[in-house]
């Protein structure tokens, strides 16, 4: 429960940071002189929820009763489904089949790239630790 609460706060703060960063970049480089208040509120809440979802869903990887493939599939499905619902509700993604399928494809590709990168990183860390243990 403690880990859940800590990750929840980190996710909320990360989502808030991303919302403010994107808004500031739009103002600086997008030529906006004023922002739309209701749109900013909607997008900020969406960013906060996305940050929370992404960080809390990583708790699947702490569950030792699940195999790595199960953890990965559960986390991917959780993140993708909740993001899709959120993005369609807020209006980040237009509600039509082409945009939904494109979002799913992009999500799968990005998730796979990040998953492989983290897998290789931790595999390399385990190899280094094993090498150090062999030297003892």
Automatic annotation (TrEMBL):
<dbReference type="InterPro" id="IPR021560">
    <property type="entry name" value="DUF3021"/>
</dbReference>
<feature type="transmembrane region" description="Helical">
    <location>
        <begin position="100"/>
        <end position="122"/>
    </location>
</feature>
<keyword id="KW-0812">Transmembrane</keyword>
<protein>
    <recommendedName>
        <fullName>DUF3021 domain-containing protein</fullName>
    </recommendedName>
</protein>
<dbReference type="Pfam" id="PF11457">
    <property type="entry name" value="DUF3021"/>
</dbReference>
<keyword id="KW-0472">Membrane</keyword>
<feature type="transmembrane region" description="Helical">
    <location>
        <begin position="12"/>
        <end position="32"/>
    </location>
</feature>
<feature type="transmembrane region" description="Helical">
    <location>
        <begin position="73"/>
        <end position="94"/>
    </location>
</feature>
<keyword id="KW-1133">Transmembrane helix</keyword>
<feature type="transmembrane region" description="Helical">
    <location>
        <begin position="44"/>
        <end position="61"/>
    </location>
</feature>
């Amino acid at each position: 429960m403690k880990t859940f609460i800590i990750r929840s706060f980190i996710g909320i703060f990360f989502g808030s940071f991303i919302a403010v960063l994107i808004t500031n970049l739009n103002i600086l480089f997008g030529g906006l002189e004023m922002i739309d208040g209701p749109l900013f509120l909607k997008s900020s809440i969406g960013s906060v929820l996305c940050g929370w979802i992404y960080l809390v869903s990583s708790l699947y990887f702490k569950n030792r009763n699940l195999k790595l493939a199960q953890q990965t599939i559960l986390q991917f499905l959780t993140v993708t489904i909740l993001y899709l619902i959120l993005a369609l509700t807020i209006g980040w993604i237009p509600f039509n089949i082409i945009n939904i399928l494109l979002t799913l494809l992009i999500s799968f590709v990005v998730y796979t790239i990040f998953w492989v990168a983290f897998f290789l990183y931790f595999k390399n860390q385990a190899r280094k630790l094993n090498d150090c243990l062999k030297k003892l």
